[in-house]
Design brief:
Strand 6, helix 9 and strand 7 form a beta-alpha-beta unit. The protein folds into 2 domains: about 170 residues, Aspartate/ornithine carbamoyltransferase (Rossmann fold); about 160 residues, Rossmann fold (3-Layer(aba) Sandwich), CATH 3.40.50. Helix 3 packs across helix 11 and helix 7 crosses helix 8. It has a 5-stranded parallel beta sheet with strand order 7-6-5-8-9, with helices on one face. About 40% of the residues lie in helices and about 15% in strands. With about 350 residues, it is α/β, with parallel strands linked by helices. The two termini are about 30 Å apart. Bound molecules: phosphoric acid mono(formamide)ester.
Length: about 350
């Protein structure tokens, strides 16, 4: 904990994020275009660092009145604990009111109402729509049928950009930088939307990725093409051992996503494929931190929780600050305004 505090104390706005860049981003944030967050791929390096600085402001003081009078809708067509509750907490801490649902069976979508009609209806009531949906591309589609900003809270196996913002914030806090890191992604790289978003965001920071997955759950070809097109180094492994992870700065564990399998026999074959145990951490780097978007099933043994390298619960806490920043940003509230707010 002390180690984390020391690192957090060193967590400063990067030098290259100059006053000029900041004022340009601040100005752009005041423009009135649709400000949806659909994919992290649309964020520049400067914008990502700007958002991390905003998250840092919220970590220093989470309770503010920046969204007084606003209404945030949370539409969750798929189950969630962290994403929904941290967005709702973020909205509450900023003074907004929250409407929405966590069970689509209790809405008119169960009577056949289309996603388009649902989004148009909720747009009559809310200033921001945070949506999780089981269909890939649903957030993009929603953003095209309304002027209300859509925040993608996960669309199928595709993207999870708000998770990526909190992952980046967690990496920055624990490593003191986002640059030149060895990032090991482990588990379900086929269906895991968090790893897809993370690798896209990291293209700005010269990472080396190690993809550790069984053949059935390998990183999809489209993301490997993305890596090659953006000069991102990667290696693929099927072995998950102490030796394989010895050089890791970040070990990003993932759950095998049962709900995405069409063949449950295949899920049964791979569900226990990798389990991280505390003993495997003995010879890892001192700066290693273990991340996991959660929920976990069995891929991290409980004895790992005692390790100072386990960071997944703090990571989830960082989600509150990252999501406060996202809610402000999609409404055009600038970092200057956050800093000036008392
Ligand atoms: N990380 C994440 O998306 O968790 P939830 O499914 O609980 O929201």
């Amino acid at each position: 904990m002390a180690d984390e505090k020391n690192r957090a104390a060193c967590f400063q706005l990067p030098q290259f994020l100059t006053t000029f860049t900041l004022s340009k981003i601040n100005k752009n944030n005041n423009d009135m275009e649709n400000r949806s967050l659909v994919t992290i791929a649309e964020h520049s390096k400067e914008k990502i660092l700007y958002m991390l600085e905003m998250a840092k402001q919220f970590e220093e003081r989470p309770n503010r009145h920046l969204l007084d009078g606003k209404v945030v809708a949370t539409l969750f067509f798929e189950p969630s604990t962290r994403t929904r509750l941290s967005f709702e907490t973020a909205a509450n801490r900023l003074g907004a009111r929250v409407i929405g649902f966590s069970d689509p069976k209790a809405t008119s979508s169960s009577k056949g109402e289309t996603l388009k009609d649902t989004i148009k209806m909720v747009s009559n009531y809310a200033d921001i729509i945070v949506m999780r949906h089981y269909l890939e591309g649903a957030a993009r589609y929603a953003s095209e049928v309304t002027d209300v900003p859509i925040v993608n809270a996960g669309d199928g196996a595709n993207q999870h950009p708000s998770q990526t913002m909190l992952d980046l914030y967690s990496i920055y806090k624990t490593q003191g930088t986002l640059e030149n890191l060895n990032i090991f992604l482990v588990g379900d790289l086929k269906y895991g939307r968090t790893v897809h978003s993370l690798l896209m965001a990291m293209r700005h920071f010269n990472p080396t990725f190690h993809f550790i997955a069984p053949d059935e759950l390998k990183m999809p070809e489209e993301y490997k093409i993305y890596c090659r097109e953006h000069g991102i180094r990667y290696e693929e492994h099927t072995d998950f051992s102490e030796e394989t992870i010895a050089e890791a700065d970040i070990l990003y564990m993932t759950r095998v996503q049962r709900e995405r399998f069409t063949d449950l026999m295949e899920y049964e074959r791979v569900k226990n494929v990798y389990i991280l145990r505390k003993k495997m951490l003995e010879h890892t780097r001192p700066n290693l931190r273990i991340l996991h978007p959660l929920p976990r099933v069995n891929e991290i043994a409980y004895d790992v929780d005692e390790s100072p390298k386990a960071y997944y619960f703090q990571q989830a806490q960082n989600g509150l600050y990252a999501r406060e920043a996202i809610l402000c940003d999609v409404l055009g509230i600038t970092l200057d305004e956050v800093i000036m707010d008392h």
